[in-house]
Amino acid sequence: MTVFVCGIDDYATLTKRLGEERAGRLVQDILQRLRGTFLSSEEVVCMRPPRIVVAPAQMLDLETSVQFALDLQRICARPFREADETLTLTVSVGFAPAGRLSRPAPESLIGAATHALDIASRQGPGRLRAFDLPADGRRIEPRFDTASVLRALENGEIRPFFQPQISTDTGDLTGAEALGRWVHPRLGVLPPGEFLPVIEAQGLSRRLSETMLVQSLGCLLDWDQAGLNVPRISVNFGERELADPHLADRVQIELERHGLSPDRLSIEILETVLAAGPEDTVTRNLQSLNALGCHIELDDFGTGHAAITTIRRFPISGIKIDRSFVKSMDTARDQQNMVAAILTMAEQLSLETIAEGVETAGEHAMLSQLGCAHVQGFAIARPMPAEALPEWIARHRAALPRPGGMAPVLFPQRESPPPLRSRRDGTGGGKPA
Prior knowledge:
Blueprint: E1 2-8, H1 11-18, H2 20-37, E2 44-48, E3 51-54, H3 62-77, E4 80-82, E5 85-87, E6 91-97, H4 106-122, E7 128-130, H5 134-140, H6 146-154, E8 158-167, E9 173-184, E10 188-190, H7 196-201, H8 205-225, E11 233-236, H9 239-242, H10 247-258, E12 265-270, H11 281-292, E13 295-301, H12 308-312, E14 318-321, H13 323-326, H14 333-348, E15 352-355, H15 361-370, E16 374-375, H16 389-399
Parallel strand pairs: 6-7, 9-11, 11-12, 12-13, 13-14, 14-15, 15-16
Antiparallel strand pairs: 1-3, 1-6, 2-3, 4-5, 8-9, 8-16, 9-10
Helix pairs in contact: 1-2, 8-10, 10-11
């Protein structure tokens, strides 16, 4: 078996020019073309626009696979008549022969073909790429099948861990970010890399986001009832979740059900999500969530393609400075200059700032000196289960200076690990998920 993943080249620009609805119709037209060419419509599915998975039933060798990929490109390249104009699209194709993976399950093949497509797309429009990197194959292949991940979601094993955020001015706790972890009954705490590929391949992202939102709000309510002061929690929403036209209504219902005001919730979105255009569902959702009173934060700021003018079109409350800018900034002058420029821009645009991935006291001190308002990272605390946060808060507050004393100090996490046995805790210092 060989799996092919087709991607429409420069789909973001196409969507911006045509609008989300018209671009979506083009994707559906391509699906119909491909399904009309093959005998079984089950061989052709839309994983997520603009990517389409094609899985022919017959066995294909490498030469035949290349020819099949070229045929896919020719089918997709036939002109489309959309409204009053004729459009010609190009697609790049990545494909993964089953023989190149040690465990050729459908999820593994889709992941490998998608990886090949990503490489092809970076090389230019209309490219082909076969999956042929064994090292990448080991990284992409999920350890768990769909049934295992679904059971984990059903049983509440996939749950939020929380990484504290603190003020650089006072040292007080200002929030906590919810990061997904799988508390496996045998293997301990597993990072998102172990289950996210399966969730994304199977279209379960929305279900995961609902789980994270509901459980995080429940934890915040528990902390309130315990007398803790956790001002806000941050939950990450991806593009698929933000494209749900009912998202704002669902968030409002959950906030009301838990008796929490909207300003207690921060929605984190990636910078790349903003590229779709000003009139689409994503934009409307962000505007509705902002009108509701939720904070909207731009995550991993500086790693995507959003311009200042793009940021100003959306109701962004704050930005999170990516770890790549924070790393070694206490000793690297160019890093300091870059962060200083970001902070100046944020001040001019009246945006809150938080730096993620703070791993050393020196980085924390420099961020404080430059005027970044909040920090999070392994130097302050690793992500922890909800039941471990009250003890961490108590120790952190006990270590803070009393009024009139010395300046706030960084409180590294030196406590024993939480009672859950951790196999590993993601990569990097700031935000493993």
